[in-house]
Amino acid sequence: MPENYDVIIVGGAAAGLTAALYASRRNLKTLVIAKALGGQAVLTPAIENFPGIKKISGIDLMMNFAEHAQSYGAKIVYETVIKIEKTQEDFLIHTANKNVLRKARAVILAFGLTPKNLNVPGELEFTGKGVSYCATCDAPLYKKKSVAVVGGTYEALDAALLFAKQDCDVFLVHDQDNFGVFKKLFAQVQENKKIKVYLKTQVQKIHGHQVVTSIDVAVDGKAENISVAGVFVEKGHRIDSSWLGDLVARDKTQSIMINEECATKTPGLFAAGDVTQQRDKQVIISAGAGASAALAAYRYLQKIKGKPALLVDWQHES
Amino acid sequence: MAQEINDQQFETEVLKSTVPVLVDFWAPWCGPCKMLGPVIEELSQDNTGKNVKIVKINIDENNEMAGKYNVMSIPTIMFFKNGQPVDQMTGVQEKSVLQAKLDELA
What we know:
Chain B: The record marks 31-32 as: Contributes to redox potential value. Chain B: Residues 1-106 form the Thioredoxin domain. Chain B: InterPro entries: Thioredoxin (IPR005746), Thioredoxin-like_sf (IPR036249), Thioredoxin_CS (IPR017937), Thioredoxin_domain (IPR013766). Chain B: It comes from Candidatus Kerfeldbacteria bacterium RIFOXYB2_FULL_38_14. The complex is a heterodimer. By secondary structure, chain A is α/β, with parallel strands linked by helices. Chain A has two domains: 3-113 and 239-305, FAD/NAD(P)-binding domain (3-Layer(bba) Sandwich); 124-233, FAD/NAD(P)-binding domain, CATH 3.50.50. Chain A is built from six helices and 17 strands. In chain A, the strands form four sheets. In chain A, strands 1, 2, 3, 4, 5, 6 and 17 form a seven-stranded mixed sheet that branches. Chain A has a five-stranded parallel sheet with strand order 8-15-9-10-11. Chain A starts with a strand and ends in a 14-residue tail after the last helix. By secondary structure, chain B is of the alpha/beta class. In chain B, 36% of the residues lie in helices and 26% in strands. Chain B is built from four helices and five strands; from the N terminus they run βαβαβαββα. Chain B starts with a strand and ends with a helix.
């Protein structure tokens, strides 16, 4: 027998946890299914633009979000959703845990972004053995070693400076010839003697024996081998929504398309936060979107039950 | 609560354990490690009284074993049986995956 919920939220970061708070405060039986809590926010040592809190670590802010939602009855389980099935009245939610099947009248998608891979030989084999996607997590394990940072993002520049501070020999590898708008930070990188910048350079292969030992790169078409103990991938993020099949419409960036009610093209299926076409990827904006999605899901559930959507925030006087 | 151990206790608690052991290598500066924390705690509660052991080691204070077992990314989860590492996973893992591995080893 499937477990029954009013709302199931896929994802446990700013959007998902705020949706859980709002849904549970509307007395909806609410479940959050997340591989882990916090999303990208937990990689941020200090968040200084969340109104009302001058400075807080991403971890603490996300833990507060989770506790707040749980205090109103929302339940959280740590699993990965692999398939959503639409039936006549409900959604069936399948996770990697084959022992449990869950059912909900409404679903909110809030699973955020996935780090981009390099897609080169050796990447998968040496993930966790020198290949890493979290410089702030693993930098202290590479003190005084040689590392490559790959990517053209703000995070790539920031990671290069972080490793330089740890006395590492840093090779910053980027396939373009500039770092776009991050000119100031790039200038700092260029001034740093511990960092060697490779522009117009592609990583082609990661070598190792049990752990990473070197990388092959093509510098403007010319092959070179660089000895490194670590390869930090900072190429930005992508939206991985392919597993949703035809349940949602996507734009050219693969973002899930929603309307002003946070609704996708499938009735009862809502989305919020970084997985949607929302342009700015910020905790405060995702949190707001999560609240909107939960209230929209509440109105949807009231409607299908034939009840009025009570507790509106305001009423237009005609 | 998952038992927190140090480098000195590693031999007794992990290598000489008569039951399979899950070791969570973590550090306080690592966001994903902290996010995995509640999963490890739940796993620990679920397995109370079973023939497995779940321990955590803070590599910020204890880097000897992390070095010995080539921990290069955290969180790293290693499984030990009869004093030998038999499997490992890096990054945040879901509870059912960890439980399945424990059940396989028990």
